[in-house]
Amino acid sequence: MTSQLEDRKLDPAVALPAIDETAPREPHRQFALKHEDCFVVSDSYGDIRGTGDGLFRDDTRVLSRFRLFIGGRMPSLLGASLSQDNILFTANLTNLATIGPNGSEALPGVVHIDRTRFIWQDRMFERITFTNYSAREVVLPVRLDFDVDFRDMFEVRGTTRSRRGRAHDALVGAASVIFRYEGLDNVARQSVIAFSFKPDQLHPNHADFLILVARRDSRALYLEVGHSEAVPSSDRFRAAAARARFAMRSKRRQGATVFSSGRVFNDWLTRTRADIALLTTDLETGPYPYAGIPWFSTAFGRDGVISALQMLWLNPELARGVLAYLAHYQSTDTSVFDDAEPGKIMHETRKGEMAVLRELPFGRYYGGVDTTPLYVYLASSYADRTGDEAFVDRMWDSLGAATAWMEEVGARNGEGFVTYNRAADTGLFNQGWKDSSDAVFHADGTIPIGPIALVEVQGYAFAAYQGMAALAARRGDDAKAAHWSALAERIRHAVETHFWMPDRDFYALAIDGEGKQCAVRTSNAGHLLYVGLPSAERAQALASQLLSAHLHSGWGVRTLADDEIPFNPMSYHNGSIWPHDTALCASGLARYHERDSVVKLMSGMFEAAVRFNMRLPELFCGFTRAASDSPVAYPVACLPQAWSAGSAFMMLQACLGIRVDGWKREITVERPRLPIGIDNIVIRHLAIGEAKVDLIFERIGDRVVCYLDHRHEGLVPLVVRS
């Protein structure tokens, strides 16, 4: 019997769709390297193909194409990796069948090609080593294609510009090519591609080499891409690599370190710590974790604060650097274009041409409703962790201005809610952490009118007021302490009254400008647990739903329950899984003594990390986990992402139940649990005041015990509650 498909005949009058030559290529894993404000993203071959990848410096792409061909063909990929410290990228390749200029043939797979690359001081260094394993010498026709488009980061992301600056013709030298661009911002930008020896032919967009490699021998080509001319060499490569590794080693040693009995678990923590070090940039105000590569390799307020909160128990210096930077750029003026008001904390900063020309507001943009209360909360948390009164004194005016902004916004509505409504059409439509245009909605999927009060933002405001009250009391200002304490209780009562959905045992996503609930179940409500706002009864109901199959996929907490109308597991914010979001929920569950649930969430995240090559991406799809399944990647997620990396340490702290009290110089451990499969964890060089101690957690039977290394007994009080 003939099937219906076989019976169908193609009508010649019906035109078939054309093949889209611009369609995404078969995805290859991408690799990122970074140093300060320069980063590179390439595929597994080490190639840059001009889509979203490239070499970027100060938000401008200074290398848009860079591809290696052997005999006119792409080499065959054997494997690619990053060094454990995130400094070196290596692609292992081999040749396909190649015909040399004299007609001799190099058989496939006889030449090993090693591409090793790193970034140091605004310059990309690369070494391409050709090793001949055949029985006779080979002559390899090697071509490197390259181009520089000087595109602004936002152009690369898809923003169209009506006009651009002037690109000069490339200057071709003996062994280098210089690209120049004069921007509309009157900044002259330059990118120089230089080789360690003269190509056989050098053109504005490619270099051709005939590389002779004797049998059982190797030959290396060195190249550099930077803003100034240089002569690449083996010595320069080795010296710069040594400096880069030393600088990274210093970053990774900041703060306490964690070691466990699990080899794979240790690999995850090591990679995670290296990612945080990679993204941390040393600014004049101190260390600052840039948000993520490639799209967000800059200082973001919200991301920086949450990353600092995640790492606070291990490395409080990161929080100090974030606070100092954000205080320095706190708004003192009102600007509709920048969404700025006095006291408000910066959301994002950019250095590119479009930001300088104010074609977009992101040069220094303040359109984040949650950054200001989070900033205040981080400051109080840093003070509690360190007891650093001197720093709090220096920050006090800034903290007062930030809190005054919160109060002023709260006075615009009857409940004290901190709300947003973008000031200009060029700004962000939604200004919470879920900032895509469709991330806030009513139960039927319709978009609410502003101003919008997000549920998690009210939680952050509650925690900020509580923190300011505690700091004011320490400073002897009882009147302000009472005032801020009253504001905290007022906002707690308002959230419990207006956000709670009694028919769903959950908190609404938001309250819109008409006072209506956005009555959908989202992960945002889990952030209320993190700050301790809900009553014990409501916290239990909330926890139960966060861990239900509707919100918990098996890998992590979905941003939206799967039975809500707009749910899409492949969306950016409406059903996906964000590791930092799950970590905040986990930390909140720990606060309400749901420690076993925390272990469950951490287990899912660890298993997801293993399948993502030990790196949790910015987000991944929210499909339900099934036996032997792997989590599904989100196609354009940043990797690495600071608050995704930091989520491992926030969840670990939640498991261990550890709190460091800098005022009392005391460590408290409450109801500790160890991750599944881990029998002991050692936290080394945990700073408390001037002391540094080693803290040990060990599984004994069905209990977890905690104690100080014998060398530190009596040095710092340790209080353990089981």
From TrEMBL:
Transmembrane segments: none annotated. It comes from the Bacteria. It holds the Pfam family GDE_N_bis. Residues 305-609 form the Mannosylglycerate hydrolase MGH1-like glycoside hydrolase domain. Gene3D superfamilies: 1.50.10.10. Residues 33-223 form the Putative glycogen debranching enzyme N-terminal domain. One of its GO terms (biological process) is carbohydrate metabolic process. This is Amylo-alpha-1,6-glucosidase.
